[in-house]
């Protein structure tokens, strides 16, 4: 009986390890071909290949243009409440990224502009400052420890996958901008304030009052900031 129990425990552990390995491989798995340029719909379903949520373009029809994206030389519009703009180049905009496990963003900051606290559920991020000075940081999972640093032109900072992070242009008079690379073709983004106070339908008022330990008037005022 002891041997049987020991075997069962070992088998259970092995099963958990295998399950964990399968789970990890679900995130932008390594491609099994050189490339898979994404298309909305194949011309002939008989020969269609469907990879990671996208159909692959026939390799014989792929051109060099499929691996080029243009437009990041243009500054983004920062005339908004936060004074920032993120131009994300993911697989939806750049089909050549499909199955490659990467994407790119240009982040523009007006004077004292903020890329508000947010996280990417499917990607780590590495940021390089091109112009200006940014305060960048992330917060760990419980216990919530902040890692933040003042970054200057040419500095690089990394944000681990799934952790809340932010960037702030500390210059109140001049702009700043940076490029970021993310470890997923479709990293996703959850902006904390928008998700909590601007969800559709709204999160229960009782939940928000209890969570933030404030009264209804404060929650109402915050939700008004995120109305369409």
From TrEMBL:
Cystine connections: 36-56
Gene Ontology cellular component list: apoplast
Every Cupin type-1 domain range: 70-220
Alphabetical list of InterPro entries matching this protein: Cupin_1, Germin, Germin_Mn-BS, RmlC-like_jellyroll, RmlC_Cupin_sf
Main subcellular location of this protein, as a coarse class: secreted
Binding site for oxalate: 115, 120, 125
Signal sequence segment: 1-26
Lineage: superkingdom: Eukaryota
Binding-site positions, Mn(2+): 118, 120, 125, 165
GO MF entry, a single one: manganese ion binding
Subcellular location(s) of the protein: Secreted, Extracellular space, Apoplast
Keywords: Apoplast, Disulfide bond, Glycoprotein, Manganese, Metal-binding, Secreted, Signal
UniProt similarity note: Belongs to the germin family.
Function: May play a role in plant defense. Probably has no oxalate oxidase activity even if the active site is conserved.
The name this protein goes by in its record: Germin-like protein
Organism of provenance: Momordica charantia (Bitter gourd)
Gene field: LOC111019892
């Amino acid at each position: 009986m002891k041997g049987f129990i020991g075997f069962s425990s070992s088998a259970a552990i092995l099963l958990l390890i295998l399950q964990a390995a399968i789970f990890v491989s679900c995130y932008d798995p390594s491609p099994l071909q050189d490339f898979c340029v994404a298309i909305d719909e194949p011309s002939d379903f008989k020969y269609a290949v469907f990879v990671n949520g996208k159909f692959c373009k026939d390799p014989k029809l792929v051109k060099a243009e499929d691996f080029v994206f243009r437009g990041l030389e243009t500054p983004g519009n920062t005339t908004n409440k936060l004074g920032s703009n993120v131009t994300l180049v993911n697989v939806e905009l750049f089909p050549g990224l499909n199955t490659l496990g990467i994407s790119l963003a240009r982040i523009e900051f007006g004077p004292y502009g903020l890329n508000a606290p947010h996280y990417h559920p499917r990607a780590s991020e590495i940021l390089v400052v091109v112009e200006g000075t940014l305060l960048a940081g992330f917060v760990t999972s419980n216990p919530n420890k902040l890692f933040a640093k003042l970054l200057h032109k040419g500095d690089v900072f990394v944000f681990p996958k799934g952790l809340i992070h932010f960037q702030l242009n500390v210059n109140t008079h001049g702009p700043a901008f940076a490029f970021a690379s993310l470890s997923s073709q479709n990293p996703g983004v959850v902006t904390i304030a928008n998700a909590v106070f601007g969800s559709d339908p709204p999160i229960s008022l009782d939940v928000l009052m209890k969570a933030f330990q404030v009264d209804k008037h404060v929650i109402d005022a915050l939700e008004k900031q995120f109305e369409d």
